[in-house]
Amino acid sequence: MTQTYPGAPAAFPSPAPTPAAEDGGAGAFLDVRNLSVAFPTDDGLVSAVNGMDFTLERGQTLGIVGESGSGKSVTSQALMGLLKGTSARVSGQALFQGKDLITMSESGMRQLRGRNIGMIFQDPLSALHPFYTVGHQIEEAYLVHHQASKKQARAAAINMLGRVGIPSPEQRYDEYPHHFSGGMRQRAMIAMALICEPELLIADEPTTALDVTVQAQILDLMAELQAETNSALILITHDLGVVAEVCDSVLVMYGGQCVESGPVDEIFYDTRHPYTLGLLNSMPTLTGTSGRLNPIPGQPPSLLDLPSGCIFSSRCDYAALAGTDVCREQRPELLVEVGHGKRCHLSSRQLITIRTSR
Amino acid sequence: MVLLLIAVSFITFTLFQLGPSDPASAACGQECTPERVAEARVALGMDQPFFLQYAEYMRGLVSPRMIGAPGAESVCQWPCLGKSFQTNENVSDIISRSLPYTLSMAVGALVLWTVSGVGLGLLAALRKGSTTDKFIVGAASVGVSLPIPVTGLFLLLVFVNQLHLLPFTTNEINSPFGAQGPWAWVLNYLLPWIALAVLFSASYIRVTRTNMIETFGEDFIRTARAKGLAPRTVTFKHGVRAGITPIVTMLGMDIGLLLGGAVLTEQIFSVPGLGFTAVRAAISGDLPVTMAITMLAAFFVIVANVAVDVAYAAIDPRVRLQ
Question: Which of A209, B98, B209, B233 could form a disulfide bond with B124, CB atoms 3.0-4.6 angstroms apart?
Answer without folding.
Answer: B209
